[in-house]
Amino acid sequence: MQLQEQVIEEIRKSLDIVDVIGSYVQLKKQGKNYIGLCPFHSERTPSFSVSPDKQLYHCFGCGAGGNLFTFMMEIEGMSFIEAAQSLADRANIDLGSSVTKNNAYRDPNDQKRKQITEGLELLTKFYHYLLTTAKYGSSGMRYLEERGFNSEMIERFRIGYAVDSWEAVTHLLQKRGVSLEFMEHAGLIKKRGFDNKYFDRFRNRIIFPIFNMSGKTVAFGGRTLGEDKPKYLNSPESDVFHKGSILYGFHLARQAIRKSSQVVLLEGYVDVVRAHQAGVTCSVASMGTSLTEAQAAALTRMADTIIICYDSDTAGIEASFRAAELLQGNGKVIKIANMPEGLDPDDYIRKFGGERFKSDVIGASQTLMTFKMNYLRRKRNLSDEGDRLLYIEDVLRELASQHRAVERDHYLRLLSEEFSISLDSLKKQLHQVSVTAERRDKRRARVAPLARSNRIPPAYEMAERRLLARMMRSREISDQVRDTLGGSFTIDVHQALAAYLYAYYAQGNPPDEGLFLQKLEDPALQRKVTELSLMPMSDQADDGEIEDCVKQVIRHSKSSLIADKEEQRKKAEQSGDYELAAQLLSEIISVKKQLGHF
């Protein structure tokens, strides 16, 4: 084994895939494996499986699968080198240059991302140094102290300060040999139109590094100290920063979220820093008020309870409603924190303190249905009879999606008491609304494409899959199949896997699905390996199982051959080539005899 492969194998064997994936996905033990909601597609029923024995994962819904390296590459958008480095850091393994010198693992398009990432890390340290050095950062530190940010939070979130200079950052980047063109793309510097010279984008601002899920700086947010506009200035999206997939503070909140199975969703980075300082360390932010599907999927993977704590103004309430719509329906408990009007979390904590924020805001969060009723009430004039009836219909439509009978009964009684309507009438109306909604859902289901997980493979395909699964677990079975079938698998991806397996064992490698997968470069083949590895099967092959599967594959292969020759024979007869038609008929009879048809 080459030195580079030894290092990769050491990383793979040093980490537990359940721990790594569990920091991104809420996993629950089910038999030998762990299951959760897939992080790569939206789903309501868990189909994502992680095998601690095989150190592999596979989604039976979308087909995603692989090992630790492929997971980090997919979830973080990393190259192989970045994934290896991240996992090596986690395992306390010195990767050095052993991987980057191996051409097999080098991404030719990664230079830009690499330089941007290195530049961001350099500037994170630089801005933090400027803030904490009295000569440069006294005005920035004074502002933070006046706002009540303590030194622990400044260190924890690596807060910095951009001095009031046009060239401090530009000169540093030039001195360190970082590409100014790449840094301009990342939005850290800009170019003047009249002389084409670069200048600093962030000046006289408190700098908040924006981190990705693994804690790497991918962008910056700057809060002005003066009257400059805008008040908050963020880096634009780039090769490493995709705003819609970021949950600010997640890498610092991860442990608290896992421990409490609860996450508090805030609007921006200042609110997160303030909440962590107040002891609400399970807080993250959606980087603005428009929660994306990717962020919503990440939140529902993390915890059983999600508390939305946005501003109390109209925009914040509307955003809370939209976020709740995205988050509900996954069996999670969604709550809405009731912020006093005119205050955001940062204002509230500075005014009333962290303990009151925890007890009177987070602790007193409304249920989702209560919030929706209040939200719908704002849309109607309840002194008007028509609007009252419309409001009741709005609430009943929301209740129709409630699966808990106790909750439906509770809110129906509230409506009955408030509007003096009999409970029976409301129940009948709710039943009609539910039936209508159910019919609509059934119509949608009929026109929806059949899920790939519901497809029942034909017998020959199942035989090929079982053979490959057994071959990956046993060199003896692989040798047996090689001697009887060779490469005569019907399905292309199965044929390719068989060829790779034969070569894998010929090199003296042991039966190890994880190691075999690591040697494959094609993502489609990697996904197929994980799918086959996690197929439910007995530990040992049953008597005659391999022989039966081989016979099934051969039978289908010969049947396909007969069909092809029959088609050729018909064309030969139509064209008047009776000699060729007779020859093809003879070959067809010969193959049929092999199948026992004569």
Topology of this structure?
Elements: H1 3-14, H2 17-22, E1 28-30, E2 33-36, E3 48-51, E4 56-59, E5 65-66, H3 68-76, H4 80-90, H5 111-132, H6 134-146, H7 151-156, E6 160-162, H8 168-175, H9 180-185, E7 189-191, E8 198-200, E9 205-211, E10 217-224, E11 232-234, H10 250-260, E12 262-266, H11 269-277, E13 283-285, H12 293-302, E14 305-308, H13 314-327, E15 333-336, H14 345-352, H15 354-362, E16 366-367, H16 368-378, H17 385-399, H18 405-419, H19 423-447, H20 459-473, H21 475-484, H22 492-506, H23 513-518, H24 523-533, H25 545-574, H26 578-594
Parallel strand pairs: 12-13, 12-14, 14-15
Antiparallel strand pairs: 1-2, 2-3, 3-4, 4-5, 6-9, 7-8, 9-10, 10-11, 15-16
Helix pairs in contact: 3-4, 5-6, 11-14, 13-16, 14-15, 16-17, 20-21, 20-22, 20-25, 21-22, 25-26
Cofactor: Zn(2+)
InterPro entries: DNA_heli_DnaB-like_N_sf (IPR036185), DNA_helicase_N/primase_C (IPR016136), DNA_primase_core_N_sf (IPR037068), DNA_primase_DnaB-bd (IPR019475), DNA_primase_DnaG (IPR006295), DNA_primase_Znf_CHC2 (IPR036977), DnaG_bac (IPR030846), DNAG_N (IPR013264)
Zinc finger (CHC2-type): 38-62
Largest sheet: number of strands, sense, barrel closure: 5 strands, antiparallel
CATH superfamily of the largest domain: DNAb Helicase, Chain A
Distance between the termini: 53 Å
Which radius of gyration do the C-alpha atoms yield? 31 Å
The CATH class of the largest domain turns out to be: Mainly Alpha
> Strand content of the residues, in percent?
5-15%
